[in-house]
Automatic annotation (TrEMBL):
Cofactor list: [4Fe-4S] cluster
The protein, known as: Transcriptional regulator WhiB
Record's function text: Acts as a transcriptional regulator. Probably redox-responsive. The apo- but not holo-form probably binds DNA.
Lineage: Bacteria, Bacillati, Actinomycetota, Actinomycetes, Kitasatosporales
HAMAP family, per database record: WhiB
Xref: PANTHER family: TRANSCRIPTIONAL REGULATOR WHID, TRANSCRIPTIONAL REGULATOR WHID-RELATED
Keyword Metal-binding in record: yes
Pfam families linked: Whib
Amino acid sequence: MKTRTKPLLHVWEWQLEAACRGMDSSVFFPPAGERGRARRRREDEARAVCGSCPVSEPCSRFALTSQQPYGIWGGHTETERRSAVQKMRRE
Ligand code: SF4
């Protein structure tokens, strides 16, 4: 029996419009051991990019549904995503 797989392009297509496309990913993902002021500064920088991003909604939805464990996606940190998932489970 032959199985057919659907193209997955639509799953990733939103990334073509991403404001962070081509940027250094270190703005969005923390280096090992990063804390305090350095972390807040990097997260603020990433949020500023996400704030002007035309695909922040699909980005945020993707990160939530795929439970991305690290980084800023759609302007949200991993801690914020974990809190959102826990809140949804309680409701
Ligand atoms: S919302 Fe932020 S992380 Fe997501 S694609 Fe846009 S700029 Fe990149």
